[in-house]
Automatic annotation (TrEMBL):
PROSITE patterns in alphabetical order: ATPASE_A (PS00449)
PANTHER family named among the record's database cross-references: ATP SYNTHASE SUBUNIT A (PTHR11410)
Family, similarity comment: Belongs to the ATPase A chain family.
Single annotated GO MF: proton-transporting ATP synthase activity, rotational mechanism
Compartment annotation: Cell membrane; Membrane
Listed name of the protein: ATP synthase subunit a
The UniProt record lists the keyword Cell membrane: yes
Membrane topology (UniProt): Multi-pass membrane protein
GO terms under cellular component: plasma membrane; proton-transporting ATP synthase complex
Family annotation (Pfam families): ATP-synt_A
Length: 259
């Protein structure tokens, strides 16, 4: 039995919780997710413009944060994974990292608590951009025919094994890479939101129970929700890192002579 506020809480959470009402526009295209994404883009652009509007030899706090974020991606991902050529990809990779991170962080901001990346369309579009990038740099480096050969035929593979290897390499490179990029980001943000919903709404439901013991457990449920929110912060940043890291790996394999 539940009463009061608990009786009004939708339970259990479902995929309907991921579809926010539209705001405006023809066919209601302008949704809250669209707004969140645009704000994330604006934050990314303004963050760097403000930090570098008047660069100093001894950096200001904002300049230091921007340089640290960029340096982390440039040195810790681009150069480490791609090599010396990774520097020219660093601006894109740093922007991608911050954009994904800002969008993921919507999932723990009070009053929002839902990341655009819980909808597969957003991670899928980011995966397509990375997909086009690593194919484009490979074709530019080697030409179409040699690039395809490099990706599908491992060095030293015996000829009798090629009918098995080539389809596997094709699926791995041109099908599974963008698919897994998108699904990994989507699944982690989707699952995190569901977990937070379960413990947050579960606290309200238990609070309205006639059973005193169950009502007391509501405090535990909310405490777990707080702990999971902190964990979601780590997941949000980690998933941005993993997405950029894998993009760098795919670029490196595209421009390498052998893979």
């Amino acid at each position: 039995m539940v009463r009061g506020l608990a009786a009004e809480v939708p339970w259990p959470p479902s995929v309907d919780d991921f579809f926010l009402p539209p705001i405006a526009g023809p066919d209601n295209w302008f949704t809250k997710f669209t707004l969140f994404v645009w704000v994330a883009v604006a934050i990314t652009i303004i963050f760097f413009l403000v930090a570098y509007r008047n660069p100093k030899l001894v950096p200001t706090k904002s300049q230091w944060i921007a340089e640290s974020a960029y340096g982390f991606v440039r040195d810790g991902i681009a150069k480490d994974i791609i090599g010396a050529e990774g520097i020219k990809f660093a601006p894109y990779l740093a922007s991608l990292f911050l954009f994904i991170a800002f969008n993921n962080l919507w999932g723990i901001i009070p009053g929002v608590q839902l990341s655009p990346n819980t909808h597969i369309a957003f991670p899928a579009f980011l995966a397509i951009i990375s997909y086009v990038l690593f194919i484009w740099v490979g074709v530019k480096r080697f030409g179409f025919a040699k690039y395809i050969k490099n990706q599908l035929i491992p060095p030293g593979a015996p000829a009798w094994l090629l009918p098995l290897v080539i389809p596997l390499e094709f699926a791995s490179t041109f099908l599974f890479r963008p698919l897994t990029l998108a699904l990994r980001l989507f699944a982690n943000m989707f699952a995190g939101h569901v977990i937070l919903l379960v413990f947050t709404l579960g606290g309200f439901v238990l609070l309205g129970s006639d059973n005193f013991a169950l009502a007391g457990i509501s405090i535990v449920s909310w405490a777990i929700a707080i702990v999971m929110t902190i964990f979601e912060l780590l997941v949000a940043l980690l998933q941005a890192y993993v997405f950029v890291l894998l993009t760098s790996v795919y670029v490196q394999t595209s421009i390498a002579e052998e893979h």
